């Protein structure tokens, strides 16, 4: 078979030869996705560097001496200075030098170098080196945290510890225990393909796109869509290098196994004895995770479906109908409720197919376009999946149809009722643990598309969901963006994920997207709604909204940070947590900060 290439001749990396590559089964799909993205690209593939970023407070010669020291310990080929043109690439060929979806200047959030450890001992060595030279390091697993900062580091000139490139082994799959133990560079694609190869009756749980790191996504508290969709809740045991270089295993891994082996219960029981500490290593900068255990789901029957709702005002009623179904766990997975505009976006066609005007796409235009799609002229679309044997699925579907049937004009559809190229077929795969690429399609919405997620948590109550939706809609109209909401409902809460898709070559769009994010964070917080996750550059502002009792949570986080990381070397600023060396020195981008990120940058003026 010849190597698949896109229309621009780009070779798509294959998982058989590269840990971060695409599985052969998706090679053609990847080519098509890349070609579609290229057809929307007007910006040059790479940009000439203005400067090479150095760590703060470190001169060029001092940096070179420190880097040479690292090279002599790890091998020259495993330390790479970031001095070449910056290439944004695309999902399957993403950079580890900067945030490919830059919202500030492309040069901001760039590293000074990347280092590729081979094992945990080398990670410890790098951490000792960072402490010695007071150089901030920023760990990534795969670096595909797109929409949240990608592989960018908050403090420009940090050294990226790219763990995935050489630490990408599946260390164990325990078929009897239905669990696995992985290194940072294991993607959902890789874990899935390995389970298929071994013909094990197990499912993984993956997010919308399959190229991310299983470990990286979990520690950033990402979600997927099977009953195991809460990734952090389904992890079991971690190995970490602490910011001082000390090695720690959490959970039952803290107890040595017989004759020095791993503890046999490490992937069976999450807590150990004493405080359950794993949580503090998620969305934080307290440790570098080098191994992590996960539970896998025993395979089962499944049936995906779609329910459409006619009226815009049905939103509140739909959420009210979802709540009892979610609380009673009749809804099998983490279902999604999307606005109908998303049905246009997932066709992969640019918005200009339907509307060439500026600002938010008018409702009438959406209506007209949707009426020509399989969903028809509706307002909301619910994607769900039920699990178990056929009898269980049938009885659950009956309850679900009855509940949603009370909403006038709702329509229930199975994948067979929809054309073969409809998005539901890729949802059915994701919801049964098959990682795919289809979700890239909505990136064709605008040229040179990048995106930011605004992700507040809503109680599963119509009134609250509506309040959030109203704020988001009002502010998207003000700042001139389409509202692309997806509400992922777990049980008592929903992650309301609003996707701001912007042209990264257009400074005005970047400024407006930034303004929109900042105002949405403020306005939601005033009503008591907070984000579960955010892009690196909005982390300070989001962290600041968790201000109860004079910011008790922030102060607690800072106490832990300073105790564990006395030199503030590990990922300063991540999740709004700065070590004492950086704190209060102008790095924080808080509410009311008047800077123009594009013009003024995101670092303090020294
Ligand atoms: P993915 O490729 O799965 O999206 P990333 O590698 O981009 O994930 O990780 C998401 C974020 O989590 C990173 O930006 C980084 O801050 C943090 N992170 C990733 N891997 C590790 C790790 N092994 N140890 C500590 N933090 C990590």
From TrEMBL:
FAD-binding PCMH-type domain residues:
107-299
List the GO terms this entry assigns under cellular component, sorted alphabetically. mitochondrion
Q: Which GO terms describe its biological process?
A: lactate catabolic process
- Name any cofactors this protein relies on: FAD
UniProt entry tagged with the keyword rRNA-binding: no
Q: Which Pfam families match?
A: FAD-oxidase_C, FAD_binding_4
Any one GO molecular-function label of the UniProt entry:
FAD binding
Give the record's keywords alphabetically. Answer: FAD, Flavoprotein, Oxidoreductase
InterPro entries (UniProt xref): Cytok_DH_C_sf, FAD-bd_oxidored_4_C, FAD-bd_PCMH, FAD-bd_PCMH-like_sf, FAD-bd_PCMH_sub1, FAD-bd_PCMH_sub2, FAD-linked_Oxase-like_C, Oxid_FAD_bind_N
Protein name as annotated? FAD-binding PCMH-type domain-containing protein
- The organism is Exophiala bonariae
